[in-house]
Amino acid sequence: MPLFTPRVFSGIQPSGGLTLGNYLGAITKFVDWQAKGTHATIFCMVDLHAITVPQDPAALRRNTRELCAGFLASGIDPERSILINQSQVPEHAQLAWIFNCVARMGWMGRMTQWKDKSGKNAEAASLGLFAYPALMAADILVYHATHVPVGEDQKQHIELTRDIAAKFNHDYGVDFFPMTEPVIEGAATRVMSLRDGTRKMSKSDPVDGSRINLTDDADTIAKKFRKAKTDPDPLPGEAGALETRPDVRNLVNIYAALSGRDVDAVLREKAGGQLGHFKQDLADLAVAKLAPISTEMARLMDDPAEIDRILARGAERARAITVPILEKTYEIVGMVR
Ligand code: TRP
C-alpha cells in the first residue's frame, strides 16, 4: 500500500441557505480539522450535486456564494484550507465519468438516499440523482482524500466510495486510490428541527420556524427558540432522561454545542430549571455566537467579486492536486493523452 498524504475533504450542497445544523454539524468540525493542522483540508460547495434536483439558476448562484461566505465567516481560512466550488474544478466531473463506468447499477440502486429522494416515481428522477454517489466518490478520490467528515446519513456513500476505489484498483491491477475513512459526527451535534425533535433541521423544510438560518437576525433567532416545541416538564439532571424527550434533548444539545461543553455539564448546571428560562438562555447564547457570523456573511455578500476571487484562487490551488491525479487515472485506464 503506498502511503497517502493525509487529506481531509468534505462538501456541502448549495441547495438552500445555511442553517445552524450545517454550522454545528459540519462547518465547526471543518474548522477544527483546519486548526489541528495534521491534514491538508479541502472544503467544497457541491453545485453539481445540487442540480441533481431542479434548481433556479439565480438562487443556485446566490446560495453558492452564501455558502462560501458562511465558510469564511465561520473561520475557514482560504489560505490554510483549499476552499472551492465543485464545477470550477472540472476534474471532479471528469473522474466521475470514469467512476460511472466502474460502479455497478446494483450498487447505486441500493443507496438509501437514492431510494428516499427518487421516491415512488424513480422513472422521473434524473440520471444525475442516480449517479450522485459516483460524483461524490470522485470529489473525494480526485484528491486521494483519506478522511471525510460527514453526517451519519452519508456513511453509505463513503462505503460506496471505498467499493469504487477497491474495484478500480483491482480491475486495473494498481494501488492507486486510497481506502477513505469516514469520520462520522456524534449524535450530539446532529441538530434537529425546532418543531419536531425527531427530524433533522433542514434548509428545505417549508416552515422557516423549524430552523435557525445563519443569516437570521438576533430578534428572529430569539423568537424561533422561544417558539421551539418542548414539553411542560423542567430540565432533568442527566442526559439519559432526555431520551424520551427529543424536542428538549435537541435544545440541550444545541446549547452544549454552542457553549463548547458536554450535555451532562449543561444539565448539572440547569437541572430543575423551567424550559421558558432555558430557551431564553439558549437564545442569548445563540445570538452571541451567531450574530458576528451573520454580520460577516452580510459584509461578504455585499462584495460578490471578492468571493469569486477567493473561489477562483481555491480552484487554482485545487487543480495543482487534481490535474495530476486525473492524468494518471486516464493513463491507467488507457486513454491516449
Ligand atoms: N452528499 C453530501 C451531502 O449531501 C455532500 C457531498 C458531496 C459530500 N460530495 C461530498 C460530502 C464529498 C463529503 C465528501 O451532505
Strand content: 5-15%
User: What's the CATH topology name of the largest domain?
Assistant: Rossmann fold
What is the average per-residue confidence, as pLDDT, rounded to a whole number? 96
Question: Treating each run of at least 4 consecutive H or I residues as one helix, how many helices?
Answer: 13
Shape: globular
CATH architecture of the largest domain: 3-Layer(aba) Sandwich
What ligands can be seen in this structure? tryptophan
CATH H-level superfamily of the largest domain: HUPs
Tell me how many strands there are.
Answer: 5
Number of domains: 2
Task: Please report the first level of CATH classification, the CATH class of the largest domain.
Answer: Alpha Beta
Low-confidence stretches are none
- Strand adjacency order, main sheet: 1-2-3
Largest sheet: 3 strands, parallel
Q: Which class do the helix and strand fractions yield? A: mainly alpha
From the alpha carbons, calculate the radius of gyration and give it in angstroms.
21 Å
Q: Give helix and strand order, one letter per element, not per position.
A: EHEHHEHHHHEHEHHHHH
Alpha-carbon distance between the termini? 27 Å
